[in-house]
Amino acid sequence: MSSVKMTVRNKDRLYAKLKRLAPEADMALTKANGAAAEEMVRLAQSYVPVRTGRLRASIVATPPGGTPPAHGQGVSIVPPGAFMVTAGNSGVRYPHLVEFGTRAHVAGGEFAGAKHPGTPAQPFFFPAYRLIRRKQKGRATRAINQAVKKVATS
What we know:
By secondary structure, the protein is mainly α. A hairpin with an 8-residue loop joins strand 3 (about 105) and strand 4 (about 115). The strands form two sheets. It has a two-stranded antiparallel sheet with strand order 1-2. Strands 3-4 form a two-stranded antiparallel sheet. It has helices at about 10-45, 55, 95-100, 125-154; strands at about 60, 85, 105, 115. It is about 50% helix and about 5% strand. Helix 1 (about 10-45) runs antiparallel to helix 4.
């Protein structure tokens, strides 16, 4: 087996730049994620059907380290660098029924025997997500590339 010997010139400068890159890229990515989350909130709020306005008001973006509203889907604490967009809270517990609709069924409980005709789906959350997904990927890539260039030139 043969071995290859390699020498890296200015490795101290390289290591210093790499140490500066991680926080710079993290900060840029967090900023890009925040912009995407706010845009998704605005889009979802514009698509949601409005009767009382409570569902529209419940669509929010929770910043890193924050706690999403009670009865929202997902984690209990938003991880660093991420934003969580949720619909619903302790007073609005029906976003999934609006998003996906309900099928016809016979009710139980207090209204046992009543025939519910079902409700049509009125998607608002996932259409907003699908519209912003590709745009956010490009936004994140540009943010990281700019961070790399900023650290490389300094």
